Amino acid sequence: MNRILIISLVFLYFCIPSFAQESKVFDELTMNSKILNMERKYAVYLPPGYETSQRSYPVLYLLHGGGDDQTGWVQFGEVQLITDKAIQEGKATAMIIVMPDANTGKRGYFNDVNNEWRYEDFFFEELMPEVEKKYRIKSEKRYRAIAGLSMGGGGTFFYAMHRPELFSSACPLSASVRNATFEDFKQGLQNNKVEVKNESTLQAYFERHNALQQIELNDLEKMKSVKWYFDCGDDDFLYEGNSLIHIAMKKKEIPHEFRIRDGAHNWTYWRTSLPEVLGFVSETFHQK
Q1: What is the pLDDT of residue 193?
Q2: Using a CB cutoff of 8 Å and minimum separation of 24, what contacts does 67-73 make?
């Protein structure tokens, strides 16, 4: 009887730590937004060991595409499985991953043209402070990265362009980068029956949300302070826009990684992108 008890205790001694070291994903978390005047959902990945340690972690903000929500990367992107594997194999450092919902109310990551729906303000003024206070996140630029696919790839590019002091690296995947002309932009507003309340703000809004304009107008050293990684499939309908960004950044001598791989605009492609993203942002988190 004593022998059985001893064996059982030894088994528990070795097994309990392994269970405690498992990663966790919570995909129905909520917070109140005064800016958007509503409850907002977000998902969080906590790395193995988070619950038993006292250390703080770097953070990756991971943005979903159009039509998905905060569960997209969890359900279709297999973020937990892929990140666990990358950490276990030593290809990525342990990090917290925050996945916000940009599909409720109005779809997208930006303030609207009349500055009435202010999602970008919500992201920087409410979401980031909330999660970086709630979780043990290192809040310095060097420990903060952003990535996303399609609509979220566009969000990634423009957030890092608008606030380069906040992100050490940015990884737009199959990014929707809004490279239309100003006339096409205005026509799009008309087609979508958007009432512009102040025409004098349109040019500045267009320039703030057009990738090539941002590369042309923004401070060169600030753009260079972000480590950039672009990835797009050779059969992706957004291939041309992403290639134009690569060319424009090359002309400005902005260091960046640009990958064109076999694939299309789908989760099969983005699941293979995620391990590369995790490795890339981990390199920026490490001390050189």
Answers
A1: 86
A2: 67/103, 68/103, 69/41, 69/101, 69/102, 69/103, 69/104, 70/27, 70/41, 70/42, 70/43, 70/99, 70/100, 70/101, 71/27, 71/43, 71/99, 72/99, 73/43, 73/97, 73/99
Residue 279 · residue 92 · CB < 8 Å: yes
Provide CB contacts within 8 A for 85, sequence distance 6+: 275
Is the Cβ–Cβ distance between 59 and 95 less than 8 Å? yes
Give pLDDT tens digits for 141-178.
Answer: 999 999 999 999 999 999 999 999 999 999 999 999 88
Element (H, E) at 37: none
Map out the domains of the chain as residue ranges.
25-285
3-state DSSP helix/strand/coil % of the chain, to nearest 5: 45, 20, 35
Please compute, for residue 155, the number of CA atoms within 13 A of its CA located in the half-sphere on the CB side: 29
Q: Which tokens is 39 given?
A: 């409850």
SS3 label, residue 206: helix
Q: What is the mean pLDDT of residues 91-116?
A: 96
3-state secondary structure 67-119: CCCCCHHHHCCCHHHHHHHHHHCCCCCCCEEEEECCCCCCCCCCECCCCCCEH
CA gap 71, 61 in Å, rounded: 13
Copy the structure tokens of residue 281: 């942002």
pTM of structure? 0.92
How do 169-173 and 227-233 pair as beta strands?
Answer: parallel
Residue 175 burial class via C-beta count within 10 angstroms: exposed 0-12, middle 13-18, buried 19 and up: buried
Q: Report the CATH superfamily, name and number, of domain 25-285.
A: Alpha/Beta hydrolase fold, catalytic domain (3.40.50.1820)
Distance CA 24, CA 48 (A): 7
